[in-house]
Amino acid sequence: MKNFFTCLCLITVVLVIYIGNAKSYTTNIEDESAVEMKKLATVLINTYPSDVIIRLGIVEAYPTVVKQSMSFDALADYHEVLRLNKMNLPANAMVSIDKCSSLLFKMRDCNEELNCMINYYKKYKPDKDFRYTLGPDSSNHLFYILRKGKQQYVEIKDMEESVQEVRKKLGKEYESLLTELRETQQLDIDNALYDYLIAGILMNKGDNASALVELKRGLEKKHCNLYMRDRIQACAVVADKMDIPVYDEWPPNKLKPTSPWRLTKNAMVFGNTSRGYVGLFQVVFKTIVDDGKKCEDAGDYSTAESYYNYVVEVGKQLSREASFINEELDGSIRLQLAGYNALQELYTKEAKEKDKEEVSLKLKCLIDRRKYLKKLKMLPQVDKEEYKRLYLSTPISKSLVVEKGESAMLEAFFEKHPW
Fold first, then answer.
1. Whose CA is closest to 145, among 122, 169, 126, 116?
2. How far is the C-alpha of 270 from the C-alpha of 405, rounded, in Å?
3. Can you give the residue ranges of every domain in the chain?
4. Would you put residue 276 in left (φ > 0), alpha (ψ -120 to 50) or beta?
5. Within 10 A of 208 (CB to CB), how many other CB atoms are there?
6. Per-residue b or e along 273-293, where b marks 16 or more CB atoms closer than 10 Å to that residue's CB
7. What is the pTM of this model?
8. How does pLDDT run across 28-75, given as a tens digit for each residue?
9. Is the dihedral of CA 83, 88, 94, 98 positive or negative?
10. What pLDDT sits at residue 16?
11. N or C, fewer C-beta in 10 Å, the chain?
């Protein structure tokens, strides 16, 4: 028995060392890739200092390899593209989404913090005078909104006064962002994206009537464009100018790095094809669904139904522009599922069996489509050679999938070669 426990301890020690080394090795691989990517990107910027396509491609490619630095490095900043050309439509679209996301997340954080304070005092100190101290926590938006000058701490004594102060300061940010969005919209007037971002801001301000006007205006336009095709094309141009492998193989005469799977043209170009869509959902359409639920809880079923239908229709609109699988999964399908699921719950509550049955059929079609798209994404694992022949080439910017779009190419391939 003693020998058994001795062996068990030795095995445990070996496993701990192995896991620690494996983790360290993975971290080193990622660090090496990040350093290499930064070096290659810097060389390109110095070589092509005024090339907007190169700069946009670097902004798109950089976070795919250097995920940790996505929010903190100029190499991942769309403002650098706008510095070269303030009318660049892809960069303007992404900057607008990022700004809306940042402001609305700040607002939600503040509301959650204030509600936590109120609930804490109600539960634990109902007979005490309200008094709460905030410190300089970098994630605490409330502290930075209420701080005066360079205060190290903020003491809240009057909750109502603090709530009004937060609303006043955020209100100014809302108005400033609305003005900026309307100005940017003039550069891309036929793009429904800006109507939806403005609608999201207005709805979060509580101006639902004006938000619905913006939503309807957006749905009258042909498309809601996040310019994924343009962004992928720019990224592919950058990948071609970097002396790295297309997929995961290296020429025999070139020294192989420690992480070929990490820094490849394939990963750089196709590794981030849902960027922007998640933020768009969180900023605008989750808010609309949440407001629909509030109407539903208040017994206003017709308004709730109209909100959910707006989300579905925008999802259909997004499908017209989807060229890459993740665009469809994280954009059009995600929105339609959110809208139809909410409608199904509503019709169940109202006992509208016919409407519920129609929605159930549409949900089934969307779920089947989602499964099919996920199956398409498995092609590299099923047949890597066929995958490379299909849409990886040198130069990768001329590959069929970049020029014609991933979804269409893969669907055409599977019609001829089902598996």
1. 169
2. 11
3. 89-188
4. left
5. 17
6. bbbbbebbbbbbbbbbbebbb
7. 0.82
8. 444 566 777 788 888 899 999 999 999 999 988 877 666 544 444 667
9. positive
10. 42
11. N
